[in-house]
Amino acid sequence: MPMPRFRPVKAVQAGPAMTAALTALLWTLFEVFSGPAFAAPAGVTFFTPYTDVAVTPGETITYSIEIKNATGEIRRMKLAAQAPSGWETNLTAGGYKIQEIAVRPNDSETVTFTVDVPLKIDKGTYRVALLADGAPVLPLFVNVTEQGTYQAELSTDQPNMEGTNKSTFNYELKLKNRTPDAQTFALRADAEAGWNVQFTVEGNDVTSVSVDPGGQKTIRVSINPPSRIEAGTYKIPVRAETKNLSAETTLEVVIRGTYGLKLTTPDEVLSTSITAGGERRVKLRVENTGSAPLAKIQLSADTPVGWDVKFDPETIDTLAPNETKDVTATIRADKKAIAGDYVVTMNARTPEAEDSAAFRVTVKTSLLWGVVAVLIIGGVLAGLYALIQRYGRR
Amino acid sequence: MRRSLSVLFRKEVADHLHSWRFNILIALIALTTLASLYTAAQTIRSVVPQADQPLGDIGLFLKLFTTTDGKLPSFVAFVGFLAPLLGLGMAFDAISSERNKGTLVRLLSQPIYRDDVILAKWFAALAVVGVFFLALGFIVMGLGLFVFGIPPTAEEVLRIVFFLLVTAVYVAVWQSLAILFSIRFRQAATSVLAGLSVWLFFSLFYPMIVNLIAPITGRGTVDDVLREIGRHQFLSRLSPVTLYEEATTILLSPDVRALGPFTLEQAIGAIPTPLPFDQSLLLIWPQIAGLVAMSVVLFGLSFVLFMRQDIRGR
After folding, report:
1. Which residue of B296, B301, B302, B306 to mutate against A (max A Cβ within 10 Å)?
2. C-alpha angle B254/B256/B262, rounded to 5°?
3. Of B265, B275, B285, which is closest to A370 when you measure between CB atoms?
4. Residue B69 in domain
5. Above 90 in pLDDT, residue B55?
6. Residue B138 phi, psi (nearest 5)
7. Higher pLDDT among residues A389 and A51, named by residue
8. Most exposed of A8, A163, A276, B27 (fewest Cβ within 10 Å)?
9. Which of B162, B268, B291 is the best residue to mutate to test the A interface, defined by the most A CB atoms within 10 Å of its own CB?
10. A37-144 maps to which CATH number?
11. Distance of alpha carbon A315 from alpha carbon B151, whole angstroms
12. How confident is the model at residue A24 (pLDDT cuts 50, 70, 90)?
């Protein structure tokens, strides 16, 4: 608003009336010391075409301002920018950052005025102005269309994965830095003991990652569940943190039940000895090594012909994951079994899983005939002794 | 031991050791068996071609006794053949020669009991034979150490010692028989002929006779065949030769698990592992008992015969 503000001063020079002059002086002083004290230079116009722009937080607005000098002499003026606090402004021309500009008579200069809209800003209309010699000469409106933030964002497209307790779960996270500064985020996963969570950025295992202002990084997360885990859904919160920023997302791991069965003995010894025709009790241990409960575990044995194996109990109704149960097997060897080693295979079976344990059973022949033979030899020797006693001493 | 018995025993042992006959016999046995051992040691490498089998498992030292190169019989075969000869040769004239020379009457006129005489003869023969076979066995083990460079396991040593003891008992059977004949027959020639014919009978003709009486036809049901084999085995086992063969087979081949036939049913699920020594011993315990009983019974007979005999000068 270019206005001839010095006219009252001229009136002082022209008019003889002292009161009028005093009034005019006071007015002038008032004009000088209050409000926009320095008026825009007369005969100079400021122009930019887009005076009201809509932007998003973090955007930079570039105004091209034409300054036209319509007077007959060179005009020099100070230039400055007026903007809400926290906004950054810049005046450049001819490749320099400038504070003052001179315009030739009847000529114009172009100044580039940049305004950086901060990231953390409320939605609304803001005023920006260019000041020439301290007076606002070009009011501009900036309409911030979104609520601005100063924060980090952690997100993933696929937060849910399914697998077994042996699987590795690979997630892809995106970490966005919505701040004007480069940030180094510490990466952390709040998994329970036994879980192994590894962050990878650009092929390297990392525990922290730095993200450029306004930029984003892709973080791969591989999760290994504990090998002995029950089927179910597990939530793993993953955090990226700096001193005053924190972003969090939750990954979901769905463990499918696996079936595993192990048959062994409490002391892992798979051999025993037995007398032909005799019995031997063996303690077996059935273990559920899977992650799902097993029902109706049947115990059976592959034996040599004429042998018999009885189990107590013969079936195990249910066995929870990682649980063990002891079973007593009674092996009965055939009477005609020959001395030496035989193989007896014990089986534990369910429709889902099975395991077997091969026992090496050493058959020993009964000592009975050995004893009989010793008795015969003893009898014969006793007979000989009796003979000597009877017929001796002659 | 009574003093007179121990004196007589020592005299008898000295007699054996100084006699040409005994020395020739043991030289014969020692030479033939050592020759067979030498060939066994030469060919032992072909017995162990299975690289996956640990040496200890197959009883390398035991193989030394049973391996043959095809030209010369094995140690066991030689001993089995010559041991009866040794027994017969040592004792066929134990009593009859003394009687014929007239020394028996002179001996009995001393203040000694008559049973001491025959006991001393028997014990001396047993002791000499036992010592001889144990010595032979340990020479073989020493040779084995020299050839293989590895020591035998405790079980192998036990098996070999028992094999040697069983051999001594086997010789004792033939000695007892020879003593019996030397008492029964006055002529030494008759005694030796009788002994040789019994030996020939058992080692050559008896198996044929058993085959004739109880042939194994292999016809009929499994039970029939088993019964046939059972009868055949029972008859065969009346011969000391069979008993000795079975005992040595089991003792020296730990992988043999049964003597008789065994059905496929018994073999299902069995693993071909060597038997532990105690089980092998239990398997042939009846055979050992039989051999011991045979020699004791034969000696008992000769004892009774000798005690009842009228002994006069010529």
Report:
1. B296
2. 155
3. B285
4. yes
5. no
6. -75, -30
7. A51
8. B27
9. B268
10. 2.60.40.10
11. 51
12. low
Sheet holding A340-349, edge to edge: A271-275, A354-364, A340-349, A294-302, A315-319
The conformation of residue B238, written as its DSSP 8-state character, comes to T
Quick check: is B22 in a domain? yes
Domain with B39 in it: 3-308
Count of structural domains, chain B: 1
Question: Other C-beta atoms within 10 Å of A185: how many?
Answer: 22
> Residue A225: what are its φ and ψ, rounded to 5°?
-75, 160
B147 lies in some domain: yes
Mind telling me how many Å the CA of A297 is from chain B's nearest CA?
Answer: 25
Chain B residues with beta carbon closer than 8 angstroms to that of A341: 270-271, 273
**pTM value?**
0.64
Q: Which CATH code is given to the segment(s) A151-255? A: 2.60.40.10
- The yes-or-no verdict on residue B170 having pLDDT over 90 is yes
Q: What is the DSSP string of A119-140?
A: SS--SEEEEEEEEETTEEEEEE
- Does the pLDDT value for residue B296 go beyond 50? yes
- List all residues of chain B from 115 to 134 with a beta carbon under 8 Å from chain A: 115, 119
* Top CATH class, A261-364: mainly beta
Instruction: With beta carbons less than 8 A apart as the criterion, state whether B304 and A387 touch.
Output: yes
A68 torsion bin: left (phi>0), alpha (psi -120 to 50), beta (else): beta
Residue A243 at interface with chain B, using a CB cutoff of 8 Å: no
Q: Domain for residue B239, yes or no? A: yes
B-chain residues near A374 (CB < 8 A): 285, 289
> What's at A275, amino acid-wise?
T
**B258 and A338 in contact by Cβ < 8 A?**
yes
3-state secondary structure of A80: strand
CB contact under 8 A, A336 and B266: yes
- CA end-to-end span of chain A, whole Å? 167
- pLDDT surpassing 90 at residue A200: yes
State the burial class of residue B282 (Cβ atoms within 10 Å of its Cβ: 0-12, 13-18, 19+): buried
Q: Do A387 and B304 touch (CB under 8 A)?
A: yes
pLDDT in tens, A143-193: 988 777 778 888 899 999 998 888 899 999 999 888 877 889 999 998 888
